[in-house]
Design brief:
This protein has ten helices and 13 strands. The two termini are 36 Å apart. The chain folds into two domains: 16-256, 3-Layer(aba) Sandwich (Aspartate Aminotransferase, domain 2); 259-360, Alpha-Beta Complex (Aspartate Aminotransferase, domain 1), CATH 3.90.1150. Helix content is 36%, strand content 16%. Bound molecules: 4'-deoxy-4'-aminopyridoxal-5'-phosphate.
Length: 361
């Protein structure tokens, strides 16, 4: 078997042990005579998998009792619609921190539903910095404040979250959920597409404080209303059963690895290997992001010319390091260092960066 080091931003690398378990179980699931993806989502076997994943997530992430965990479809992108459709209308407003490319998409959808006050706009600095969390104060009458925990394309990550008092704080945590411990009680709602740290694409996670369910727009069609999913234990309609099954295996893997403390420690190590390679390169590599807000998950960097970048990326790929080109909208390079990327992957990339700088500096 030949496994490359996979630096894709999502879908992204999964633990080999999880892939092997899926391979072993996909045709016949634990003596059932059929696959788990062929059985009814109402069967006791599936329900056990579904509920176990929720229990494990609650335990690993420290989700308090006053929150519901929902398994939805539609990606984090559907949440860009569902959040404003549930909590905003044409006569009300919300607040948003325009921190990067993903916040911009969330803003654009929210604006179709109601008024959006931009509390911080990082676009003039090309999304290279974040506001001081203490400066984030909700506007009068705001229904909620929306932030993006980690900007996957721009390589920015909040290190401390704002305190918005009684105004619900809603966070898109797609690209750094389960990468470090978080005080869930600071948020009214957390959402995330699964395809980075949780499992395969197809599943979207929503963690929502129960009182928010009472504020959902009752005129929405069934699927769009969070309350529908909370009432039905995310089984109102057919959930993405394969992704939930696989996410359950990833959650067990996190537990076996020692939980979030162990995962965080490894993530720190990987990120510092790459940032060190940048910082000790005498300007051969450059990270455009304000040092304080550098992302531990998506390290973006540039070389002096696009020709050098192209050459570097070509060599990396030939050496079995895939997914390193930056997002097509910004170019450059990006190393996504999600939970399942082994430390050896970051070591190998850091070494290549040093060797390449030496040969071309
Ligand atoms: N938010 C962030 C921070 C993301 O990184 C992404 C996907 N890369 C999205 C939202 C959109 O997610 P999806 O593709 O699951 O709709």
């Amino acid at each position: 078997m030949k496994r490359v080091f996979n630096f894709y931003a999502g879908p992204s690398t999964l633990p080999v042990s999880v892939l092997e378990k899926i391979r072993d179980e996909i045709v016949e699931f634990r003596g059932l005579g059929l696959s788990i993806i062929e059985t009814s989502h109402r069967s006791s076997e599936y329900e056990e998998i579904h509920n176990r994943a929720i229990v494990d997530l609650r335990e690993i992430f420290g989700i308090p009792d006053g929150y519901e965990v929902l398994f939805l479809g539609g990606g984090a992108t559907l949440q860009f619609s569902m959040v404003p459709l549930n909590f905003l209308d044409s006569s009300s407003s919300c607040d948003l921190v325009l921190s990067g490319s993903w916040a911009k998409k969330a803003m654009s959808d929210a604006k179709k539903v109601g008024k959006v006050n931009v509390l911080f706009d990082g676009s003039a600095q090309k999304f290279s910095t974040l506001p001081n969390p203490a400066e984030i104060k909700p506007s009068a009458g705001s229904r909620y404040v929306h932030i993006t925990s980690n900007e996957t394309i721009d390589g920015l990550q909040w290190q401390q979250y704002p305190d918005t008092g009684a105004v619900p704080l809603i966070v898109d945590m797609s690209s750094d959920i389960l990468s470090r411990p978080v005080d869930v009680s600071r948020f009214a709602m957390i959402y995330a597409g699964a395809q980075k740290n949780i499992g395969p694409a197809g599943l979207t996670l929503v963690i929502i404080r129960k009182d928010l369910l009472e504020r959902c727009n009752p005129n929405l069609t069934a699927y769009l209303n969070y309350k529908t999913h909370a009432t039905g234990n995310s089984l109102y309609n057919t959930p993405p059963v394969f992704s939930i099954y696989a996410a359950g295996l990833v959650l067990q893997w996190i537990k076996n690895e020692g939980g979030l403390p162990a995962v965080t420690e490894r993530n720190r190590k990987k990120a510092s290997l790459i940032y060190d390679a940048i910082d000790t390169s005498d300007g051969f590599y450059r990270c455009p992001v304000d040092r304080v807000y550098r992302s531990m998950m998506n390290v973006v960097f540039r070389l002096k010319t696009e020709a050098l970048e192209e050459q570097f990326l070509k060599i990396a790929e030939a050496k079995g390091m895939l997914g390193l080109p930056g997002h097509r909208s910004v170019g450059g390079c990006r190393a996504s260092l999600y939970n399942a990327l082994p430390v050896e992957g970051a070591q190998e990339l850091a070494q290549l960066m040093k060797d390449f700088a030496k040969a071309n500096g």
